[in-house]
C-alpha cells in the first residue's frame, strides 16, 4: 500500500486526569493473561548501572516480555545470550525481541544471530536512522536490501526481522514517503514492521489504517502515549491522547503478537513503566 501526504484520521482521546500518585515499586502486581512487554531503552541508565537489580524490579511490576536495546558484539548489558536468558528466565521473563544498530545489520548480523539463538530472542529489529543516514531514497533502498538479506539468514534460525519506525519515514523525501520504499522493496512475508504508535500518530497518520493497509505485517507494537501538552512529548500509557482501546481492538488486523511499553524520556523511568503497566491492565486491556 502506498501512502500519500493527505489528511488522516488521528487517533486521539480525551486526556486523562493528571497523575494523582505513583504506585509503589514494591507492590505485588497480578500478571494478566496478556503478557505485557517493556522496551529496555526506557530504563537504559538503570540497566547500565545495575542490570540485575533493574530486571528484578521490572519483573516485580509484572512484565513478562523484554525487548533489548543494549546489544553489542555478542553481548547485552555485559552478558552473553545464554547468561541473559538464564537471568530473565529465573525472573519469569523472556527476551522476546531486540533492537540492533544499523551497523549490526550491515556488518555483524551473523554474530548477532548466534547471540539471539542463545538468548531465545525471536525478533531482530532495525531501530533507527541518524539524520545523515536518511537524506535520499537510494539510502532507503539500500536498507530494504539489507533487511531482506538479513531476513533470509534469520529465517533458518526461526527469527523474524522487523523495521521500527519514527516519524521521518512518513515525511516526503524527493516526492515519496520512505516507508513506501521499505514496504514495497521487501517481501511482506520476510520483513515485518514494529509499529511505534507514538511516532506514527505524531506524523499525522492513523495506526489503524496502517494495520488495514498492511494486514498481518505488523506483529509488534511500541505502546507509548502522547502528552496532552503543546509540546506533545512522551507520556505514560493511558495518561495522554492516544485512543489505545480502539487500537488494541484491531490487533488481529495488525497481526500483533507482542507489544512493548516504551517511554523515551522520563524523570523516573521505573515509576513510569509501572504506571503504564497499571493503566494497561486496569483500563485498556480490560
Automatic annotation (TrEMBL):
Keyword Hydrolase: no
Molecular function terms, GO-annotated: isomerase activity
Lineage top rank: taxon: Bacteria
Pfam families: AP_endonuc_2
Residue stretches spanning the membrane: none
Taxonomic lineage from the root: Bacteria, Pseudomonadati, Bacteroidota, Cytophagia, Cytophagales
Species assigned in the record: Marinoscillum luteum
Entry annotated with the keyword ATP-binding: no
Protein name per the record: Sugar phosphate isomerase/epimerase family protein
Residues making up the signal peptide according to the UniProt record: 1-27
Domain named Xylose isomerase-like TIM barrel: residues: 56-263
Keywords: Isomerase, Signal
InterPro entries named in the record: IolE/XylAMocC-like, TAT_signal, Xyl_isomerase-like_sf, Xyl_isomerase-like_TIM-brl
